[in-house]
Specification:
mainly alpha, 3 helices, 77% helix, globular
């Protein structure tokens, strides 16, 4: 249960930072979903370049890559919408 809460909190903070970098206006729910999806995308990108240590619960660059992933998601959404 605590893991889900951390995903939501980290997702919200990552989404908040990413949307302020990309100058996008979104509500609380969309910001949180953006951050969670960005965390998934960022984790995938991080694993392409380096594997985390065996048995590690998360990638060392996790929060930074969550923000990068959220920026990538916003960029792709802006390309599709506009």
């Amino acid at each position: 249960m605590l893991n889900i809460l951390w995903y939501i909190i980290v997702g919200f903070v990552a989404g908040l930072i990413a949307k302020s970098i990309m100058h996008v206006h979104a509500g609380l729910l969309m910001t949180t979903l953006l951050g969670i999806v960005g965390s998934i995308v960022g984790g995938f990108i991080a694993r392409l370049f380096s594997k985390p240590a065996e048995g590690a619960p998360f990638h060392p660059a996790g929060f930074i890559m969550s923000i990068v992933g959220a920026i990538v998601v916003l960029f792709i959404v802006n390309l599709v919408v506009h």
